[in-house]
């Protein structure tokens, strides 16, 4: 049976407390100390198992933490790339809707965004925070499709532009929590110039 991260942490704490309790009893209880002394094989077996359990459980927690950290960084980088394409696509579509841009270019940017979103979806769907970002990204895609369908015949293009702008802002808000694991150097390498939000509790 494979323990979850929470179960593994609890098991590590319990085993450590049991070991500490036995060490304290061995130091304070003469009768118990004599019993352990008279049962050398049992003593060696129990102590060996406890040390092994502590080692395995602690190492497991460290490995899981590193895996989660690496995965969080990969998810954040993917989200930033999607957000960047979303902003570009929304800008070009807005220009097409208002008559100052080319509809074919807008349609191409929209296709690029949807393909990128399709590729990123399996990575983003697992965790709650990244899934919220994915939902906002899909909603923005819907707004883009709606705006493109109405280009040329929309009585009030400002309404579509306003809806697109609002969807982009909601996407950026959903992306902010994912950026906490990325340092400025990583953001710069991805091509992002926006400021990284500070984590809660930091000055």
**Largest beta-sheet details:** none
* Order of H and E elements: HHHHHHH
Which percent range fits the helix content?
Answer: over 70%
Distance between the termini: 43 Å
Cα shape: rod-shaped
Structural class: mainly alpha
Number of helices: 7
* Radius of gyration from the alpha-carbon trace, in angstroms: 28 Å
- Which ranges are low-confidence, i.e. pLDDT below 50, for 5 or more consecutive residues? 195-203
What is the number of domains? 2
By DSSP, the count of extended strands is 0
Summed over residues and divided by their number, the pLDDT gives a mean of 79
Approximately what portion of the residues adopt beta-strand conformation?
Answer: under 5%
Would you mind describing this structure in some detail?
It is built from 7 helices and no strands. The chain starts with a helix and ends in a 13-residue tail after the last helix. With 203 residues, it is mainly α. Mean pLDDT is 79; it is low at 195-203. The protein has helices spanning 5-28, 30-38, 40-97, 103-124, 128-149, 157-175, 184-190. It folds into 2 domains: 5-64; 70-190.
């Amino acid at each position: 049976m494979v323990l979850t991260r929470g179960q593994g942490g609890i098991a590590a704490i319990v085993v450590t407390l049991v070991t500490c309790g036995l060490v304290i009893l061995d130091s304070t209880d003469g009768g118990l100390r004599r019993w352990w002394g008279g049962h050398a094989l049992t003593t060696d077996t129990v102590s060996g198992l406890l040390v092994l359990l502590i080692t395995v459980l602690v190492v497991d927690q460290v490995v899981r933490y590193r895996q989660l950290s690496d995965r969080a960084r990969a998810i954040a980088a993917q989200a930033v790339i999607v957000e960047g394409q979303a902003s570009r696509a929304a800008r070009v579509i807005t220009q097409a809707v208002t008559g100052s841009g080319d509809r074919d270019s807008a349609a191409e940017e929209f296709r690029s965004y949807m393909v990128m979103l399709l590729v990123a979806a399996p990575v983003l769907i697992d965790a709650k925070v990244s899934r919220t970002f994915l939902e906002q990204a899909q909603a923005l895609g819907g707004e883009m499709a709606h705006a493109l369908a109405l280009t040329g015949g929309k009585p009030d293009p400002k309404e579509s532009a306003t809806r697109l702008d609002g969807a982009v802002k909601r996407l950026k808000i959903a992306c902010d929590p994912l950026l906490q694991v990325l340092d400025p150097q990583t953001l710069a390498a991805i091509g992002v110039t926006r400021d990284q939000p500070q984590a809660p509790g930091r000055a």
